[in-house]
Amino acid sequence: MSAIIPLRDRLRAAVAGAMKSRDRRTTSALRSALAAIDNAQAVEIRGVRAGAIEMSLMGPGAAEVTRRELTEAGVAAIVRGEVEERRAAAVAYEAAGREDKAADLAAEADALAAHLG
To answer: Of 21, 24, 45, 76, which is most buried, counting CB atoms within 10 Å of its CB?
Structure first.
């Protein structure tokens, strides 16, 4: 029985492979998708205000907050969004006569879509 590898871990592993093969488009697309996932996990900061230093939190890790946990479906939705965004941009570039840029974006979208299963 094989364990199912989470999408985020598959994307991270694919970055190393793309870098070794010197595939800049795929490396860029994978890094961008991983950054989008990281951004989605960021914690929203509310009520930030300046105050006296003696009123601030003190000690190692006192101000750290646990990041949001995304489900596998949430991660897949983010990657799908990245794919759709690239495909829409490719269509726009093609309409503007920039077939080279459209081809780059379509290749990035295909590289990400390959990891969606």
So the answer is: 76
- What are the domain boundaries of the chain? 1-40+69-117
The answer to whether residues 45 and 75 touch, using CB atoms and an 8 Å cutoff, is no
pLDDT digits (tens, 9 = 90+) for 41-80: 887 766 656 666 666 666 666 566 777 889 999 999 999 9
Architecture of 1-40+69-117 per CATH?
Orthogonal Bundle (1.10)
User: pLDDT tens digits for 87-106?
Assistant: 999 999 999 999 999 999 99
The answer for residues whose C-beta is within 8 angstroms of residue 11's C-beta and 6 or more apart is: 30, 33, 34, 37, 79, 115
